[in-house]
Structures are given as structure tokens and as C-alpha cells.
Design goal:
single chain, six-stranded mixed beta sheet, disordered N terminus, 6 strands, 434 Repressor (Amino-terminal Domain), alpha/beta, 270 residues, Endonuclease, Chain A
Length: 270
């Protein structure tokens, strides 16, 4: 487990899980049968060797009659599997009224399938299978903001290279592009593609996300070789907003972008 996890919250979750099991007179094996998770996973969570996901927490609440206790405790663990430099942005992302972003290499995390995310995160050096699984779960759980009653407006611009870069099997790539096109059908989500024909553009310098709020100034998240950087400086935010607007002038229209995504999915990845 990564050294920078929130150990105090994890220890509290583990102790409460053991106590709730004891009160209910349930062994790890019997709880596993109720929640459809393995006894070994329960053991690892109770020994603070794994970070539980939200689904695990909710199923424990249902099986142990704890009326939302574990789901609420999970809130303190929500950012644990992420690197320390990314954790603050996860909180900003969850509160944002709108998110505008650009990617030139990979499908953005909020629109990734679990299989695609697995392939991307498996490239992390010195990561165990358990750590990769935790990171995948955490990445997919970030996407719940798109299913809220009032989801944020999400406007994504990607370079066409994102559609062609093979990070997994053809089957996974095909599924990922179909998912990308399907998500772009939602009224709160726009996905636009900068075609190869556009040539060089300012987005090739790096990926970014602009998070905008109803009651606070906007912030930006900038990808870098060292991981990522968050900035609230108005001058930096204004510069990134200008870059996003400039990139939008290079994109195909929304429907044409979706058509290109589907074309690449069918012609390259089948």
C-alpha cells in the first residue's frame, strides 16, 4: 500500500468493520457470501492492506445493518488511492459546476472504461496488482459525478491521436471508443476532436482541465512530467482558458467528432 494513504481513516474503517461483524456474529466467510466479495479481500481491508471501494462500503452497510456508516466513512478514503499531488483536484472535480479539458495522449479519466483504465495504470512503475486494482476502482468511482441528478457540464477536446494510440487490445480500444461516443450523447457532455489535418497546435504542449464553480473562482489542473499541478492564479487560469478556446477553433463540430470516433472504432479497432 502506498505510504501516503490516509492511515487514520483506513484504520478506523477497518476497526469498525471488525466490530460490526462481531456484533452481527458474522465471520469473514459469511460476510463475503452476503456482499459477493472474497474473504481474502475483507481480511486485507481489516488489516489495512487494501482501501475499500464505495460499492464494498455500501454492501457492508446493507449486510451489517449499519445504515450508511461505511458509506460515510468511505468519504474520508475517497482520495486515498490517488497520488498526493492529485488528491486536491479530485475534491475540486467533485464540486465543479463545469469541467473543460484537453487531452492529446489518452482518453480522459472521467470517460475511461475500467478495461482501458486498467491498461493505462498497469504501466505505473513499481505498482503491485493490488495497487493497480485500487487505482482503477478509484478512477472509475470518480465518474459518479456524471450520474448525479445535477451533473457538471463536461466539455472535452481530444487530439485525434487519442483515438489511434493503442494502449490495450483492439477489443478494449473498440469498447473504449464506443463508450466515448455514447457518453458524448449525454446533454451535459460534449466531446470534440482535433483532426490530424489541423497539424501542430498549442495543445501538444500538455493536457489540462479547467474546473469552474458557482461560488468560487475557477482553478486549473495541468499535467506535467512530475505528475500534475493545480493553480488558482487568475493569470494562469485566464491563459489556460484562452488555450482551450483556441483549441476549440481547431476541432471538428460535435456531430462530426462523434462520427470520427465511431469511424476509428470500426475501421481501426475491429
Amino acid at each position: 500500500m502506498a505510504r501516503d494513504y490516509d492511515q487514520s481513516a483506513l484504520v478506523m474503517f477497518a476497526r469498525e468493520l471488525q466490530a460490526a461483524r462481531a456484533r452481527a456474529g458474522m465471520s469473514r466467510e459469511s460476510l463475503a457470501g452476503e456482499i459477493n466479495y472474497s474473504p481474502s479481500l475483507i481480511g486485507m481491508i481489516e488489516s489495512c492492506r487494501r482501501v475499500p471501494g464505495l460499492d464494498f462500503a455500501r454492501r457492508c452497510d446493507a449486510a451489517l445493518g449499519t445504515t450508511g456508516t461505511f458509506a460515510r466513512m468511505h468519504e474520508h478514503l475517497r482520495t486515498a488511492p490517488f497520488p498526493a499531488w492529485f488528491r486536491p483536484f479530485v475534491e475540486y472535480e467533485a464540486r465543479a459546476a463545469s469541467l473543460r479539458g484537453f487531452e492529446h495522449v489518452l482518453v480522459p479519466g472521467l470517460l475511461q472504461t475500467s478495461e482501458y483504465a486498467q491498461a493505462v495504470l498497469a504501466t505505473r512503475p513499481n505498482s503491485t496488482e493490488d495497487q493497480i486494482e485500487e487505482m482503477v476502482t478509484a478512477r472509475i468511482e470518480r465518474q459518479v459525478i456524471l450520474d448525479r441528478d445535477e451533473p457538471p457540464l463536461l466539455w472535452i477536446v481530444v487530439d485525434e491521436a487519442v483515438l489511434h494510440r493503442q494502449v490495450a487490445s483492439g477489443k478494449i480500444m473498440h469498447g473504449q471508443l464506443l463508450h466515448l461516443a455514447e457518453m458524448a450523447e449525454r446533454p451535459n457532455i460534449t466531446v470534440e476532436v482535433i483532426p490530424y489535418a489541423a497539424g501542430a497546435h498549442s495543445g501538444l504542449l500538455g493536457a489540462f482541465v479547467i474546473a469552474e464553480f458557482k461560488d468560487a473562482p475557477s482553478i486549473v489542473y495541468l499535467e506535467s512530467a512530475a505528475g500534475g499541478q493545480i493553480s488558482e492564479e487568475s493569470a494562469v487560469v485566464a491563459q489556460v482558458v484562452l488555450t482551450f478556446d483556441s483549441l476549440r477553433s481547431e476541432t471538428l463540430p460535435r456531430r462530426a467528432s462523434q462520427d470520427l470516433i465511431m469511424k476509428v472504432a470500426e475501421e481501426r479497432w475491429t
